[in-house]
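Hey,
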Amino acid sequence: MRHPAFVFSSLLWLPAALAAQDFDTVEISATQVTPSIYMLQGSGGNVGVSIGDDGTLIVDDQFAPLTDKILAAIAELTDEPVEYVVNTHFHYDHTDGNENFGGMGAAIVAHENARVRMTTDQFVRVRPQPAYSPEGLPEITFDQSVRLHFNGQTIDILHLGNAHTDGDAVIYFREANVMHTGDVFVRYGLPFIDVGNGGSINGMIRFVDAITHVIDQDTAVIPGHGAVASRQDVVEYAVMLRTIRDRVQDAIDQGRSLQQILQSNPTQGFGPGDAEEFVTNVYNGLAP
């Protein structure tokens, strides 16, 4: 396995699927983003795929039972093996395949906090996430950023603060002008903020605002879930987050309880999604 040079600097919606989900019925679809970068969709977070002479790099790997289907979809694009798996955060719908890919020899890359979460038993939203075996743990971690040179791309993996969790990363393919955001930016409406694992509404807003200063109007954005997006979609998403945050903060400042805030419908005009869960998470991140 060939490992290119790294430059280090010290610088979810989780599907409401039960553990008994029938993965046999899941089909993996591929969307071409650029001549050498694709997005795979199945069940779980979007998988980014970079192909080229150096091998194959993927961003996230969905659920473990889907690994063979993901590999089959990649085989339609390239004969090169998966050399790297980059995790955008630790949630199971983005990392459950880590043990399979790690067992095949792929090097796994993630933020240090994401690795810490994967070393212990977690409970994320609707199901437990047991600690991963050594094969599934990131062997390359970073604090603020790491740069990878692979397939003719300068790939910046950036942690722009705590947001969806305390270990979020976005992956920016500079020459291709493509960014994978993980669940910091999603396209199904109201996002899930994992307050219990370091996420917060203010962190989400800061992180998304920072993304808009990295990308431009021509950037193709692969969200954590949903169709390929543009910078304008990210900007509009930030407006949604900020508007709802301000409505909840104003209500808190007026001394209203969580129940009163929920009844006032602060997500009006936005959605779809679980408004009660979202507002509760926003409230828990703001309330003194």
